[in-house]
Amino acid sequence: MTKPGQSWPPTDTEPAVPHEDAPAPGSKLGVHYSHCFGCGDEVEAGLHIQSSVAEGPVVVSQFTVTEAHQGAPGLAHGGLLACAFDEALGSAVGNLLRKPSVTAKLETDFVRPVPVGSTLHIAAELDGVSGRKIYVSADGRLDAADGPVAVRARALFVTVGFEHFTTHGDKDALHKFGVSDKERPKDWDINP
Ligand SMILES: CCCCCCCCCCCC(=O)SCCNC(=O)CCNC(=O)[C@H](O)C(C)(C)COP(=O)(O)OP(=O)(O)OC[C@H]1O[C@@H](n2cnc3c(N)ncnc32)[C@H](O)[C@@H]1OP(=O)(O)O
pTM of the prediction? Predict the structure, then answer.
């Protein structure tokens, strides 16, 4: 675990420079997969996170906590909050760098309770890249972009080849992600 005060990223990194085809600041980001628990519109009890690109290597996301997301009565489950951050951090990595990547490590600090009915405003920022390793962190603020911080997270994503998804998951994964064979060389950095 990263201890409070420990430097982040934990190793020397290069700046994370958005891909030339990354959506511009202000762009709303769509659902990357309709059955994704984080953002998918076909998962009734899912998190239905909505994200858009902000200035800097930053993606902002909103997650509204419903009764389907409770741990204690009236309060969000911590594991689902971690899920929300995984999605928000992954969205920053995937959309800005356009490198297929997976979460290798995810740390969360739960600072305040998050009640049902509240909306977490999550700002995820790319902190640096070291080879295949991408460091990214986020703050989640209660009910407003400048509200009190409720959750903080840091993550390491590792760039993988597209075959990670087709080998370990669904052989049709790329089409389900909406990435056609024709698009791959142009729109994605596929040489991790
Ligand atoms: C438009 C699109 C939107 C896209 C929007 C997408 C949003 C989706 C968000 C959800 C994302 C997910 O939940 S993804 C699902 C959850 N994650 C997973 O299922 C990943 C499962 N794990 C794996 O498949 C593997 O362990 C990998 C790929 C992470 C790494 O395996 P590998 O490829 O063999 O590489 P490996 O050599 O082990 O690791 C590479 C480097 O990372 C380091 N490393 C690896 N794991 C760790 C670790 N836990 N902690 C520290 N360091 C680590 C290694 O030391 C090494 O450093 P060095 O020696 O190079 O220095």
Answer: 0.95
